[in-house]
Every structure is written in structure tokens, then in C-alpha cells.
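Figure 3 (text version): C-alpha cells given as input.
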């Protein structure tokens, strides 16, 4: 078939291109999600301007704000946290001094799992993959000389999210900052922990109670706080495709919305405080379309499925992080280019905040120099590239609109399957989403090994190189110091009052009252994260995944 005949064939097929309509088509190219890419994308028989609408209007395909970055740039929020609260505080102030506009806290594994630094389960892990926070005093040191009414803070914490939020509120009070002035996000997304990440503590029912308690408390007391960051990022890092990332994230969001409504909350009361978290990978066109599709789908779900009336409830606002799993230890300087492409996709897709990974993250904790380059990447995009000067600059592109439509349809199919199983919790219990992600990860690895997918510096364009592992290391003294600090805390606090509060917590955890006010009271009286979680473990038990997963 000659080129002209082939082009005519594609033009006919692309009146309304669809995988389901053309199952026999074997395209020359496809996206990583398996969506066929036409040789030349052609316009469909429709008025694009009328179909797409405008930014800031339902269904928000083109963006949630009418001015987007012409009003102000996205929040540049570099994820950071390591070793002690003092060390992390230094990094935060360094980043703020160099133009970062929001903080993002990484906690170590003991903190994420609800253990104090002196717990036997924490041995050897204190401060290793994030900052160690056991008490209000640690949290106070973490934000020393950082006014909490002036910054927006994101905390990547899930199972014990309510406890860390309580500590943050308590520190703000010590600074004289009202709860109503606080801005930020707590990740608070337990379902993706069951699916893809593994830092869960409690079974689903009490975990969902903690989440809806945060929804309810923040709706009344911290109106500018995002009560959850429903995370597709970790689903993508585990090996999902872009389509699965959208579908499974929105399925989780549906489950949280259902749980909040069943807990007695009005959808328009809490929905505007929901936020999302996505990955940005290197297939530029698919990633841009993914963000646009997610916005459109969520608007439709909130309006049509849940009957939300407030336009703010329809808006999918999201943070983006460039793809950690795409970074290579080989030729790490190449990661600067990968991160720039991924960051540009996030901006073109309309993200509200962005973290850019550092080039050396596949090797060690990032150095200050590499963190600076990552931050400067965002600043160059915002101030030099021109892509922020117009809203949805790729809107109306034939191929972008085609991919946006395809991702929407394929994600809807996944969501319907999950609905048919009884929702996200049932699908997780059956291992459906876990299995789909594992299969996608396996397929991708096979594609890399067969060189169907090229990873520059790994399976092509390789060089001989020697890299000495060095840079930032977490000293063992961090763990020793944390243990000593906790001993002093327990020796000096009012133990009788602490015991009474822990007894009240045990009683309340067996009831149905909102636990947030009691948690704030506990941490203000120097009760530690581990002590709180120990009581809740006693009451609720620990989640055990099905043996076959």
C-alpha cells in the first residue's frame, strides 16, 4: 500500500478513532497504555471550541481555573525529609530561600507505620527514607522558624495521617497561628496502600473512619486544608499504565466519597477539600492527555453520580511528581532531561503543584546541588519557556483530543468493572487492581528486555562508567538521639494525664465520635505517635492482606 492510499485509509478511520471500533487495526505505534497512535491525526466532524469549552468551566478538561498560570504559577513543592527534624528543617529553609513556594514532608518508615523511634520495630530505619517524627517536639523542630500561616505544607502520610495532622495543628497553635489560616494537604489515602505501597496499619473499616473524621474536622475548622490526596502516583510507580492510574485513582476516590456520605457528610461540604496526586512519565502526549481526561471524568462523576451542585466539588485539583521509577542509575545526568520532559507534561496538563525529582535519586539521597537543579527546572519552565503564558496550550490538538477521549473511555471501562465487583474495597480484597498492576509491570519489563521499549543508557546507548556511591548518609547517631529525646519526654511529662488521655482514646476508638479533637489533645500533652497507634492497634487490630496477593 503506497503512502497516499495509507493516509486516505487513516483519514477514514479517524472520523471517530476508537480501539473498540477498530479491533482489527494493528497500528505501527501505540502509547504505553496500548492506545493506537495514528500516523497523522485528523479532525473529527465537530466544533472543537464548542466541544472543549473553556478553562474554569465544567467539565474542566482545559483546567480548573479560568486564568490558570496567567494568574499565578503552580506551587513548586519539592518533596524532602531525612534524618532528624533539625536536618530536614535546614533543607526546607534552604529550598524556601531558593524560591520554593510550598513544603512537602517525607516521613521515615517507622513514622509511616505508627512506631516511635525507640520501638524495636524501628531499629535501623530511623530517619532513613524520611524524617523521624515521634512527638509534638519533633514536629516543632521540623518547622522551626517557618511560619505556618505563610507556607503551604503537604505531608505524605497515610495510616497515621490524623495523628500527624494533629501535631501540625498543635505546632501552629504554639506559633499563634489559627487553624483557619493553615494551608496544605495530608495524603491520608489508605486504599492505595492496600493496592500498591504497603504502609498500612489498620483494617479498612477503621482506616476509613479515620479518613472521614479528618474530612469532617477540616470542613468545620480548617477550610483551606486538602483533607486527602488521592494518589495515583504510587499506583503508577508500582507498574500501572496511565489508563490504570486514572481509573484506579478515581475508583478509590469514589470509595472515599461514598464513605463520607455514609458517615453523614454532605457531598458539597467536603468535596472541594479533596485533592489528587498523579505521576508524570516520559510519554509526553499520553501524559498531557491523562491529566485532561482525569479532570473531565471526575467532574462527570461528582456531578452525575453524586449529584454535587457546587462547581468547586466538580474540580479535580492535583499535585504531580515526576516519575521516580523512570530514573536510572546509569548515566544519571540523563535524568535531568527526563524530569524536564515530565515536568513540562504536568504543566501542559494543568497541574496545581509540582515536585521535580533530582537526577541522582536512583543512587542516593539527593545532594543539595541536584535538588537545586530540580527546582531550577521548574523555574525555567515557569519563567523562560512561555508554556505558562496561555491556558491549555495543546487543547484542540487532534492527537491530544483523541488521546484524552480514549483514556476517558478506557478508564470508564475499568471503573465499571470495579463497580460491578462492589467497589474499590471489594476489588482490592479480590486482588483485582493489584493483579492488573502486576501484569502491566511485567509486560513493561519484558518490553525493556526485548528492546521494544528503549531506555537510554540502560538497554541502548550504554557506556562504561564507574559511580562511587557517596553523598548524603544518615548517621546512626540520629536514632540514638531520638531514643534519648523520647526518654526525656516520658520522664518529664505529666504521666497521670497521659494515661488518662490514652484511656479516653481507647474508649473513644470503640465508639463513633470524631477522634480528631482527642488526638490534638493527646499530642499537646506529649503523647507520642507510637503510643496513640498502639492503643488503636489494640482496639482495631492490624490489616492482613489475603495470603494469595
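Below: residues designed for each position.
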Amino acid at each position: 500500500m503506497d503512502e497516499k492510499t495509507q493516509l486516505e485509509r487513516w483519514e477514514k478511520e479517524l472520523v471517530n478513532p476508537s480501539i473498540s471500533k477498530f479491533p482489527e487495526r494493528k497500528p505501527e505505534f501505540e502509547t504505553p497504555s496500548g492506545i493506537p497512535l495514528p500516523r497523522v491525526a485528523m479532525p473529527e466532524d465537530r466544533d472543537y471550541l464548542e466541544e472543549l469549552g473553556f478553562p474554569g468551566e465544567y467539565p474542566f478538561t482545559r483546567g480548573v481555573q479560568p486564568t490558570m498560570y496567567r494568574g499565578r504559577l503552580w506551587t513548586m513543592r519539592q518533596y524532602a525529609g531525612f534524618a532528624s527534624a533539625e536536618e530536614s528543617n535546614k533543607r526546607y529553609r534552604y529550598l524556601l530561600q531558593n524560591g520554593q513556594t510550598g513544603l512537602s514532608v517525607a516521613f521515615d518508615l517507622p513514622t509511616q507505620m505508627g512506631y516511635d523511634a525507640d520501638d524495636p520495630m524501628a531499629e535501623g530505619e530511623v530517619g532513613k527514607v524520611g524524617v523521624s517524627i515521634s512527638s509534638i517536639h519533633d514536629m516543632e523542630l521540623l518547622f522551626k522558624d517557618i511560619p505556618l500561616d505563610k507556607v503551604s505544607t503537604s505531608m505524605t502520610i497515610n495510616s497515621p495521617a490524623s495523628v500527624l495532622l494533629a501535631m501540625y495543628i498543635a505546632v501552629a497553635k504554639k506559633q499563634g497561628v489559627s487553624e483557619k489560616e493553615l494551608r496544605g494537604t495530608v495524603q491520608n489515602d489508605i486504599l492505595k496502600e492496600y493496592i500498591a505501597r504497603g504502609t498500612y496499619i489498620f483494617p479498612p473499616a477503621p482506616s476509613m473512619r479515620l479518613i472521614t473524621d479528618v474530612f469532617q474536622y477540616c470542613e468545620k475548622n480548617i477550610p483551606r486544608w486538602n483533607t486527602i490526596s488521592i494518589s495515583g502516583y504510587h499506583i503508577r510507580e508500582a507498574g500501572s499504565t496511565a489508563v490504570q492510574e486514572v481509573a484506579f485513582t478515581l475508583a478509590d476516590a469514589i470509595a472515599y466519597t461514598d464513605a463520607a456520605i455514609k458517615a453523614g457528610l454532605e457531598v458539597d461540604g467536603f468535596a472541594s477539600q479533596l485533592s489528587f496526586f498523579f505521576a508524570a512519565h516520559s510519554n509526553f502526549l499520553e501524559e498531557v492527555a491523562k491529566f485532561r481526561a482525569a479532570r473531565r471524568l471526575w467532574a462527570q462523576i461528582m456531578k452525575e453520580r453524586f449529584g454535587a451542585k457546587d462547581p468547586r466539588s466538580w474540580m479535580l485539583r492535583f499535585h504531580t511528581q515526576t516519575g521516580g521509577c523512570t530514573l536510572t542509575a546509569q548515566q544519571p545526568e540523563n535524568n535531568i532531561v527526563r524530569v524536564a520532559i515530565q515536568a513540562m507534561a504536568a504543566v501542559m496538563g494543568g497541574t496545581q503543584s509540582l515536585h521535580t525529582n533530582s537526577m541522582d535519586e536512583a543512587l542516593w539521597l539527593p545532594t543539595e546541588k541536584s535538588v537545586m537543579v530540580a527546582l531550577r527546572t521548574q523555574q525555567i519552565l515557569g519563567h523562560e519557556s512561555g508554556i505558562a503564558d496561555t491556558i491549555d496550550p495543546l487543547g484542540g490538538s487532534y492527537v491530544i483530543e483523541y488521546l484524552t477521549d480514549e483514556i476517558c473511555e478506557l478508564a470508564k471501562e475499568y471503573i465499571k468493572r470495579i463497580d460491578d465487583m462492589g467497589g474499590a474495597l471489594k476489588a482490592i480484597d479480590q486482588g483485582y487492581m493489584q493483579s492488573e498492576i502486576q501484569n502491566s509491570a511485567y509486560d513493561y519489563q519484558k518490553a525493556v528486555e526485548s528492546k521494544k521499549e528503549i531506555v537510554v543508557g540502560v538497554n541502548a546507548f550504554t557506556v562504561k562508567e564507574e559511580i562511587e556511591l557517596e553523598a548524603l548518609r544518615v548517621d546512626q547517631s540520629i536514632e540514638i538521639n531520638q531514643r534519648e529525646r523520647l526518654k526525656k519526654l516520658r520522664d518529664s511529662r505529666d504521666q497521670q494525664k497521659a494515661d488518662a488521655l490514652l484511656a479516653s482514646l481507647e474508649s473513644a476508638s470503640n465508639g463513633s465520635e470524631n477522634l480528631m479533637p482527642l488526638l490534638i489533645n493527646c499530642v499537646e500533652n506529649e503523647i507520642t505517635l507510637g503510643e496513640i497507634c498502639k492503643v488503636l492497634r489494640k482496639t482495631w487490630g492490624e490489616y492482613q492482606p489475603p495470603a494469595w496477593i
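Residues 13-27 have pLDDT under 50 and may be disordered.
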